[in-house]
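[INFO] parsing input record for N5-carboxyaminoimidazole ribonucleotide mutase
[DEBUG] input buffer:
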Amino acid sequence: MTPVVSIIMGSTSDLPVMEKAAKLLDEMEIPFEIHALSAHRTPAEVEAFAKGAKDRGIKVIIAAAGMAAHLCGVIASMTTLPVIGVPINSTLDGMDALLAIVQMPPGIPVATVGINGALNAGILAVQMLAVGDEQLQGKLADYKENLKKKIVKANEELAKVSFKYKTN
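[DEBUG] output buffer:
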């Protein structure tokens, strides 16, 4: 099975955050791979990955990094594939990573989700892949319908909660 999404982390310590994207891709039955690569510690490996991803069948890259967070932009600078950046909250409440990823120079875009927003990165990757795949569009529609059902159920449960001055 050839992966179509690649999840790249600056460090394996990012895995607890990035598992959310991996679990969603699993649920959607999308083949993916996960690697730890560092723009600062393994730049040659990052370059080889980025330049070879398209030829290996990768369609979307989800890249996660904390602190200086150069990984996402470095990858984006070396490929024509869409790159989704996930800023990791490791220092400065993740704002350093968020700003490093979102403030890319013209011509080198990185679609950026919120701090530790791996699930949204996974959903965005699925949406990108679903553009040309009606079966995947159906899975995505079902996923979003289930989100709606969770809120409806939560409100039903809230209606049962009793407080002296609660009016609904």
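[INFO] The chain is about 45% helix and 15% strand.
[INFO] shutting down worker
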